[in-house]
Amino acid sequence: PFSSSSRRKMNLKSERRGIHVDQSELLCKKGCGYYGNPAWQGFCSKCWREEYHKARQKQIQEDWELAERLQREEEEAYASSQSTQGAQSLTFSKFEEKKTNEKTRKVTTVKKFFTASSRAGAKKAEIQEAKAPSPAIHRQASIETDRVSKEFIEFIRTYQKPGQDIYKQCKLFLDTMSHKRDLSIEEQSECAQDFYQNVADRLQTRWKVPPEKVEKAMDEVEKYIMTRQYKYVFCPETTDDEKKDLAVQKRIRALHWVTPQMLCVPVSEEIPEVSDMVVKAITDIIEMDSKRVPRDKLACITKCSKHIFNAIKITKNEPASADDFLPTLIYIVLKGNPPRLQSNIQYITRFCNPSRLMTGEDGYYFTNLCCAVAFIEKLDAQSLNLSQEDFDRFMTGQTSPKKQESDSFSPDVCLGVKQMCKSLDLLSQLNERQERIVSEAKKLEKDLIDWTDGITKEVEDIVEKYPLEIKPKSQALAAIDSENVENDKLPPPLQPQVYAG
C-alpha cells in the first residue's frame, strides 16, 4: 500500500503536468492496495500474474474438453458406421486384406493439450474436422487403448512440466516407431530399451524427480507405449515365435501323464485349500496371455508364484524353499498349458522395463518360469527316474501311469474326485478290452485270409494233377428201321383198339 507521503508526491507530479488524478485510479483493480499498471489492464504485477495463470488454466481446460468431445464424436461415428455392417461377415480373403491394410496404414493424430490456443483457432479446427472424414472412423477403435491413453494423461498432469516433457517424448517415440515397422523385432526392442533409459535419465538429471516417482512414471510410460504398440510387436510374423508356441503346446500335451510324484512336487491336492491354490495358480498363468503390458504379464507370473508358495507352505506346514518351488511351477505349467507361452516370454524379455526384470521378485519369478519351460522342452526318462521303455510307452500313449485306487482315498476326499477316478478306471478297462477285441479281430481276419489262400491252392493242385479231359460229341444213333426201307413185309405198327363194352 502507498504511504501518505508517496501519494502526495504522485499528486504533485500530476498537478505539475496539469492532470487531475483520482486516488482510486492509481490502485489495482483487484483492490489489493498496490499501484496498478495500465499496460497490465489496471492490475498490479502480482494480481496480473494470477489473472494470467487463471486465464491460461481455463484455456487449457477448454482445450481438453474440446479434444475429449471430438474423440467421443469420432467413436460414436465409428460405432454407427459399424452397426450398419454388423450383419455382413468377412470372408477369409477379405479378412487377410483388412489385416494387411491395418499393418500398412499410418494414422497420425496430434492433440495439443498443454499449449494454449485461441477460441477462433479451436473453432476453425473443429469446423475442418467436421467437414473432413476422421481417420478414426476407418480404423478399429480399441476401448482398452483409449482407456489407457486417458489414464496416462491424467497421471502426467500431476507431474506438471516434467509430465508435459514425458508426453512429448512418448508421442515422438510412437511417431518414430510408426515409421520403423520394417525393422527386425530385435532392433525395435533396442529402440524401446533406449527410450526407457533416456526418459528415466531425463527425469532424474533434468527435472530432479525422486527415484520412487521416476519408477512410477516409467511404469505408466511402459503401459502407455506398449498398449499402443502391442499389435505390432507381440508375436510378429517376421519371427518364429508362433512356431515355438505350437511346439511347446504339443510337448506339454504329450506330457499329460506326468504326475506330481514323478516331479517330487511337495503339494497335496487332497487338501481342499491347497487344491484351490493350485487352481488359482493355473488361472493366473493362463491369464498372462490376456494382458498387453509386460508389467501386467509379470504381475500374473508373480501372483501364480505366490499361490504356489502358499500351497507348499500349507502342505508342509513350513515356509517353502526354492528347491520346492521350481518343481511345483513345472507341474503347474504342465497342468495349465498356458497359451502362447513362448511368445509371452519373448515379449516380456524384449519390451519390459529392464530395471524391473533385473531386480525385485518379478524378475526372480520370471527367471524361474524360463527355467521351467526349458526343463519341459528337454524332459527325458532320466529326469523322471523312469526307464526309457516306460517313458516311450507313456509318450506314445500305449500305457499310462497307474492311477490311485478309489478305495484307498481318505474320507475327506471330495465325492466328485472319487467318481472321477472310478470313471477313469472304467475307461482304462474299456480301452484294454477294446484293444484286445481289435487284436483278436485282426487275428481272425488273418486266419480267414490264410484259410482262403490254402483252399485255393489245394484246388489248383488237384486240377493240375487230375486235368479234366472233355471228349468230342458222339454221332446220334440211327432208328431201327432207318436202313430197312425196302423190306415191306414188316407188319404195320400196332394201333389202339376200342372195344364196346
TrEMBL record:
<protein>
    <recommendedName>
        <fullName>Rab5 GDP/GTP exchange factor</fullName>
    </recommendedName>
</protein>
<dbReference type="Pfam" id="PF01754">
    <property type="entry name" value="zf-A20"/>
</dbReference>
<keyword id="KW-0597">Phosphoprotein</keyword>
<dbReference type="InterPro" id="IPR037191">
    <property type="entry name" value="VPS9_dom_sf"/>
</dbReference>
<dbReference type="GO" id="GO:0008270">
    <property type="term" value="F:zinc ion binding"/>
</dbReference>
<dbReference type="GO" id="GO:0005769">
    <property type="term" value="C:early endosome"/>
</dbReference>
<dbReference type="GO" id="GO:0005829">
    <property type="term" value="C:cytosol"/>
</dbReference>
<dbReference type="InterPro" id="IPR041545">
    <property type="entry name" value="DUF5601"/>
</dbReference>
<keyword id="KW-0832">Ubl conjugation</keyword>
<keyword id="KW-0007">Acetylation</keyword>
<keyword id="KW-0833">Ubl conjugation pathway</keyword>
<dbReference type="InterPro" id="IPR003123">
    <property type="entry name" value="VPS9"/>
</dbReference>
<feature type="compositionally biased region" description="Polar residues">
    <location>
        <begin position="79"/>
        <end position="90"/>
    </location>
</feature>
<dbReference type="GO" id="GO:0055037">
    <property type="term" value="C:recycling endosome"/>
</dbReference>
<feature type="region of interest" description="Disordered">
    <location>
        <begin position="482"/>
        <end position="501"/>
    </location>
</feature>
<feature type="domain" description="A20-type">
    <location>
        <begin position="22"/>
        <end position="56"/>
    </location>
</feature>
<feature type="region of interest" description="Disordered">
    <location>
        <begin position="75"/>
        <end position="94"/>
    </location>
</feature>
<dbReference type="InterPro" id="IPR045046">
    <property type="entry name" value="Vps9-like"/>
</dbReference>
<keyword id="KW-0862">Zinc</keyword>
<keyword id="KW-0813">Transport</keyword>
<keyword id="KW-0653">Protein transport</keyword>
<keyword id="KW-0479">Metal-binding</keyword>
<dbReference type="GO" id="GO:0003677">
    <property type="term" value="F:DNA binding"/>
</dbReference>
<dbReference type="GO" id="GO:0006897">
    <property type="term" value="P:endocytosis"/>
</dbReference>
<keyword id="KW-0963">Cytoplasm</keyword>
<keyword id="KW-0254">Endocytosis</keyword>
<dbReference type="GO" id="GO:0005085">
    <property type="term" value="F:guanyl-nucleotide exchange factor activity"/>
</dbReference>
<keyword id="KW-0863">Zinc-finger</keyword>
<keyword id="KW-0967">Endosome</keyword>
<dbReference type="Pfam" id="PF02204">
    <property type="entry name" value="VPS9"/>
</dbReference>
<dbReference type="GO" id="GO:0031267">
    <property type="term" value="F:small GTPase binding"/>
</dbReference>
<feature type="domain" description="VPS9">
    <location>
        <begin position="242"/>
        <end position="385"/>
    </location>
</feature>
<dbReference type="Pfam" id="PF18151">
    <property type="entry name" value="DUF5601"/>
</dbReference>
<dbReference type="GO" id="GO:0015031">
    <property type="term" value="P:protein transport"/>
</dbReference>
<dbReference type="GO" id="GO:0030139">
    <property type="term" value="C:endocytic vesicle"/>
</dbReference>
<dbReference type="InterPro" id="IPR002653">
    <property type="entry name" value="Znf_A20"/>
</dbReference>
